[in-house]
Amino acid sequence: MEKQHMSRRHFLAASGAIAGTSLINPLDGLKAAPVIHQPNPLKKKRVALIGTGSRGVGMWGRDLVKGYPDYLEFVGLCDHNAGRLATGKRLMGVDCPTYTDFEQMMREAKPDMLIVCTVDATHHSFIVRAMELGVEVITEKPMSVDETKIQAILDAEKRTGKNCRVTFNYRYSPHRVKMWELLREGAIGELTSVDFHWYLDTSHGADYFRRWHRLVEQSGSLWVHKATHHFDLLNWWIESDPESVYALGALDWYGKNGSFRSTNCRSCPHTQKCDFYFDIMKNDYYKQLYVDNEQYDGYHRDGCVFREDVNIYDKMAATIKYMNGVQVSYSLTAYSPYEGYRIAFNGTKGRIDAWIEESRPQNDVNYDQIVLFRNFSRREYIQIPFSSSGHGGGDKLLQDQIFIPGTADPYKQCAGVRDGALSCLVGIAARKSIASGQPVKIGSLTTIDPQVEKQYTRIV
Ligand SMILES: NC(=O)c1ccc[n+]([C@@H]2O[C@H](COP(=O)([O-])OP(=O)(O)OC[C@H]3O[C@@H](n4cnc5c(N)ncnc54)[C@H](O)[C@@H]3O)[C@@H](O)[C@H]2O)c1
Asked: Which of ligand 1's atoms lies nearest the C-alpha of 390?
């Protein structure tokens, strides 16, 4: 296929967003795009939450109760762990009814909006049902874990005419928005390739191997659970759909590679010699949510990272080709000494480089730095101050856009079913490529037909 770069004209068409004074109209050129409806400004939104674990009770529970009392009220909470459900309600400080039966909650609580915060492999069933009931639905990432479940969501979208917002908070971090702006303004000419390497450390990275995330059938593996963020960023930065993926992966460090193991840290005889010993009793939030409710489902939040049943990779690499000809070299390593990422965007007129350390930054700085190299010119250092709220300030900006009526979307950060699907499908294709040893075409997985130009979700 002939190579089709993102055109200079295309960069410049969007660059009005960057100057700040002349923001682009987010609806321009998006008339046929999928739509997320904004809330009625005169009415408090009736919100129901399914999944009262750490994320549900935190960002989508307590934070909303505190931050948006004029815009929403909780009318129902649901979780299949009755103990965690009661704890979640207490920690959120709400007095709405609680349910262990999802259908009963939807019938009795009659929410306007459902927020889905359960284990990844279960998201699709709640998304589809909410769409069928005509309820606005917000889901945590990843939207789903395999192509069959994604197809079920696509079919429900077609059948019901409803969309589902996927909460890609990574799009909202100020330094990533700056990268999007630089690409749109043509700072490096036409984008031709991206080098993107993500490192999870031996603390946060190891944590995925302690929990349900260690099972591909629950999380889709880190290719989907974690990398859905990274593939969504790529789709958004590159502004085109992924075409094909060739991948490699292995489990080199956790799981069966350990020389000793137990079921979980509290019952382990090897704590003195284990670098991964985690004393969950020192974290009161986790103790209340998980340890105190083990009797209901037997789930250990402090599971052993060396359990034999770990069936996800901890070392992954992929080559991704985009419909506009951009090529990506991607990797994810889950046992690094520090957490963060290195990225470079290569273009016809220069290169954008960044090394973002999310843990253990070497210098005492309060900004993220991007270096812009223009060919035959001096380099430019661009410093973007840290923000105080979660995920580089992204979490709060995302919540504002969802709950405060009239919040604009100048950087096209609103993500719907198509974005949720395409970000997962890259990881699903990577899994299939490892299994077959062959490149996998994204268009072969679901009814989504990848396009040269990305289709944005618009807010109306
Ligand atoms: N965007 C981000 O940065 C971010 C960060 C953390 C978590 N997340 C996402 O949030 C979601 C929840 O993650 P978490 O860390 O809170 O996990 P968790 O294990 O703490 O919570 C999941 C909850 O869902 C409940 N649950 C699971 N299956 C259920 C079912 N079928 N019916 C009812 N309840 C069910 C569990 O009992 C548990 O309380 C995941 O999809 C995860 O990917 C996103």
From this structure: 3
